[in-house]
């Protein structure tokens, strides 16, 4: 069962796999290419309007590029790296669908697509409400 009132986002580091010269990025980064492939593939995705794909600045996992994150209110946040521009986009959307439909976002290792099994960089628990003292 999904929580359709929860805001979901698929974040993609647009600076991943960049080529730098004299302190400036040259050409299109791997992250930008991954974002474009995901955008194109997502046009036919059943969650297209419920799970925006957003390119963001550096997510500080440069040695594990390309990097993505699944994030939603009251759900676990996942950060994945080592993703291929050519081979990962379909599996990323498959995994995003599993994340969307699980009430707390839990993604068991055995149920993740192959490219997201070994590339996990972080699993961050959701923030719970705090009591005032």
What is the CATH superfamily?
A: Glutaredoxin
Estimate nothing, just give the exact number of structural domains.
1
Helix content: 10-25%
Describe the main β-sheet briefly. 5 strands, mixed
- Indicate the overall shape: globular
Q: Strands of the biggest beta sheet: in what spatial order?
A: 4-1-5-6-7
CATH class descriptor: Alpha Beta
Protein topology:
Blueprint lengths: L7 E6 L5 E3 L2 E3 L3 H13 L10 E4 L11 E5 L4 E4 L8 H13 L18 E5 L9
Parallel strand pairs: 1-4
Antiparallel strand pairs: 1-5, 2-3, 5-6, 6-7
Helix pairs in contact: 1-2
Plain-language structure description:
The protein has 133 residues and is an alpha+beta fold. The chain has one domain: Glutaredoxin, CATH 3.40.30.10. The chain is 20% helix and 23% strand. It contains two helices and seven strands; from the N terminus they run βββαβββαβ. A five-stranded mixed sheet has the order 4-1-5-6-7, with helices on one face. It has a two-stranded antiparallel ribbon with strand order 2-3. The radius of gyration is 15 Å and the shape is globular. The model has no long low-confidence stretch (mean pLDDT 89).
Q: What characteristics describe this protein?
A:
single chain, 133 residues, alpha+beta, Glutaredoxin, two-stranded antiparallel sheet, 2 helices
In short:
The chain has 133 residues and is α+β, with helices and mostly antiparallel strands. It has two helices and seven strands, in the order βββαβββαβ.
């Amino acid at each position: 069962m999904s929580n359709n009132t929860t805001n979901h986002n698929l974040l993609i580091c647009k600076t991943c796999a960049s080529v730098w010269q004299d302190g400036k990025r040259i050409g299109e980064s791997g992250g930008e290419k991954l974002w474009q492939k995901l955008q194109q593939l997502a046009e036919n995705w059943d969650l297209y309007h419920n799970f925006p794909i957003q390119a963001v600045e550096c997510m500080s996992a440069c040695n594990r590029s390309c990097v993505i994150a699944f994030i939603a209110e009251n759900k676990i946040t996942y950060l994945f790296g080592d993703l291929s521009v050519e081979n990962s986009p379909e599996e990323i959307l498959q995994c995003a669908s599993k994340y969307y439909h699980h009430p707390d976002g839990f993604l068991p290792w055995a149920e993740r697509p192959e490219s997201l099994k070994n590339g996990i960089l972080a699993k961050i628990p959701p923030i719970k409400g705090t009591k005032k003292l």
